[in-house]
Amino acid sequence: MAQELTPLRQQYLEIKKQYPEAILFFRLGDFYETFDEDAKKASEALDIVLTSRPVAKGVRVPMAGIPFHAAENYLGRLIERGYHVAICEQVGTEAAERGLFPREVVRVLTPGTLTEPSLLPAGKNNYLVCVFTQDDRAGLAYVDISTGEFAGTELHHSPIAAAVRSELQRLHAAEVLIPEGSALLQSEDFHITPVPSWYYEAGRAEESLKRHFQVASLDGFGLREKPLLKQAAGALLKYLQETQKGSLQTLLGLTTYNLEDFMVLDGETRRNLELTETLRDGKTEGSLLSVLDKTKTPMGKRLLMSWVNKPLLNKETIEARLDEVAFFHQNGVMRQELTAILADLHDLERLVNRASSGSIRPPEMLSLRDDLRLLPTIRQLLKDAKAPSALLASLHEFADLEDLLTRAIADEPPATTGTTGIIKTGFSPELDEVIHTSSHAREWINALETVEKQRTGIKTLRVGYNKVFGYYIEISRGMAENAPDDYIRKQTLVNAERFITPELKEYEALVLNAESEIHDIELRVYKAVCAQIAAQAAPLLAAAQGLARLDAVVSLATVAALNRYVRPEISEDKGLRIEAGRHPVVELRSAQRYIPNDLIFEDGEIVRIITGPNMSGKSTFLRQAVLIVLMAQIGSFVPADSARIGLVDRVFTRIGAQD
């Protein structure tokens, strides 16, 4: 039977065999086609027509397709349904044996490996997490390939499954990798992707990380005493190399962290406190984050969310963040100027990553250019106001890249790289020459009808074009006998004759070949520009992270000014003293004036018991106390007349009858 299959079917089956778990989008002309069971899944999930295609004599298989130019929308719907999608493209411009163009999978899309702006929430990270457990220990590594963030930790808690689940909930993991056969997590909790156990082999994982980072030792990343993290991070990198086909230039380093550096907040506590989303409908509005978030950039929004999820335990670090918030709190005019500038920024973090991977679109290049133009203004504003030096440290200027993008990218480029007009006139002499030659040829063809009418005296003569015959000179049947000797008959119609001339064919070739040549040159120049951006990815990403930090602290300062918050006093003893405290969320959402209240632990007191009837406000009072402590430890001012906070390393909550 195999010998009877069409060459295209054989090619498809060979590629599909490598990606049995993914829906294979197989490029045929202007469509991505799916076949067999993939077609049935795609038809049902995307509500598209299920047809069929002959693959051998008397044999047809199910087929369903989508236009390639509209693929993102369809891909998003499949990813939401939990599918993985392998994108198979035609590679090369010449057909190989059997008349087939070679094809290969260029990328596998999964919930944790998205980079397309239309498929990602701007203000949230999209984390792919990899877990490896051994007894009551676990290595956990995560990455957001849209921003280049790569980090991990080791967990030492019993039961380890609960500790892993809590950290995955904090990260809002989009996809979780675990070894095949592992029963650590249930699929209903997260999108689970089993990967081969050999991905986690210690030697293989370590070598994979060394090769990627081009280092002889991983000690510089803090991995010497973290063998399980090494295995998780190495397996994660292997999975990315398999699915992203090598486009990992912006994974420039691996950051390690210890949960002991942050307040412990288990999943139940996070939900009950409604830190980033509400219990009732899972929306941000009505959560603590919605109160604190006045950020103007997507990267600032993502950073602030991570701060809310990771309250600090180091007094010095908290005080440094409070100093930055206090600086902008005290400088209202400067804060407003900075807020207006930040509002004009784009998602620099993701733009740099897309440029480095070569997937950035031409209009996004202009967004990147505009962000680079604003950096000197922001830096000068901070310097003039004598802002804390940490805020200036990474805000470098990129005059060379800004100049490159200004000279290279057209002021109104097309939406995608599939259309010409990306590169500005004057940047590439080679491109300018082809465009000039093509323009001259078009002008010659456009003038040909007038010239030939005058030369031949045939008033019915006209110059036309179609895709089959190209350019031609058409003369009505009655006047065809008057055609000049240099006209070559091309086609006979009922009422007319069509001719060509050697000179017309020469100019036709210039015009028709030029479009393809212009596109090829523009793509080559565009990729070269992307490569120059990628060469400076590290300082660019550092600047993006510096802008994110700036945006986050300005947001906290703005909220403090609007809501009459005060700077808390942080101490390392066990005391807690809140005078005239207010619930940060309830006071803003209540139509009535919120009545402040005190919470004061006297020296030596460590327990207070609250009693009262149902609906008397006990839960609100408890949440208020915890939220004020938590706000203080993320470096925020707090809703109170004064607050002295002894560092809290863990919060437990069991609030409400449902618990």
Can you put this structure into words, describing what you see?
- With 659 residues, this protein is α+β, with helices and mostly antiparallel strands.
- The chain is built from 20 helices and 20 strands.
- It has helices spanning 7-16, 36-46, 71-80, 160-171, 202-213, 227-244, 267-273, 288-292, 298-309, 315-330, 332-342, 348-357, 362-384, 389-392, 399-408, 429-456, 502-535, 537-563, 586-589, 618-634, and strands at residues 23-28, 31-35, 51-56, 59-67, 85-90, 103-109, 128-134, 137-144, 149-156, 175-179, 192-195, 255-256, 462-466, 470-476, 488-492, 496-500, 569-571, 576-581, 597-600, 642-646.
- The strands form 4 sheets. It has a 6-stranded mixed sheet, sandwiched between helices.
- It is elongated.
Euclidean distance between termini CA atoms: 62 Å
Structural class: alpha+beta
Strand content: 15-25%
User: Which regions are unreliable across 5 or more consecutive residues at pLDDT < 50?
Assistant: none
Give the rounded overall mean pLDDT.
91
Q: Could you describe the largest sheet, including whether it forms a barrel?
A: 6 strands, mixed
- Morphology: elongated
What is the count of DSSP helices, taking H or I runs of 4+ residues? 20
Helix content, binned percent = 40-55%
* Number of E strands: 20
**Side-by-side strand order of the widest sheet:** 3-4-2-1-5-6
Radius of gyration: 32 Å
Task: Name the features.
single chain, alpha+beta, six-stranded mixed beta sheet, 20 helices, 20 strands, 43% helix, elongated
Entry summary:
The protein is an alpha+beta fold.
How do the strands and helices of this protein lay out in sequence?
Layout: H1 7-16, E1 23-28, E2 31-35, H2 36-46, E3 51-56, E4 59-67, H3 71-80, E5 85-90, E6 103-109, E7 128-134, E8 137-144, E9 149-156, H4 160-171, E10 175-179, E11 192-195, H5 202-213, H6 227-244, E12 255-256, H7 267-273, H8 288-292, H9 298-309, H10 315-330, H11 332-342, H12 348-357, H13 362-384, H14 389-392, H15 399-408, H16 429-456, E13 462-466, E14 470-476, E15 488-492, E16 496-500, H17 502-535, H18 537-563, E17 569-571, E18 576-581, H19 586-589, E19 597-600, H20 618-634, E20 642-646
Parallel strand pairs: 1-5, 7-10, 9-12, 10-11, 17-20
Antiparallel strand pairs: 1-2, 2-4, 3-4, 5-6, 7-8, 8-9, 13-14, 14-16, 15-16, 18-19, 18-20
Helix pairs in contact: 5-6, 9-18, 10-18, 11-18, 12-13, 12-17, 12-18, 13-15, 15-17, 16-17
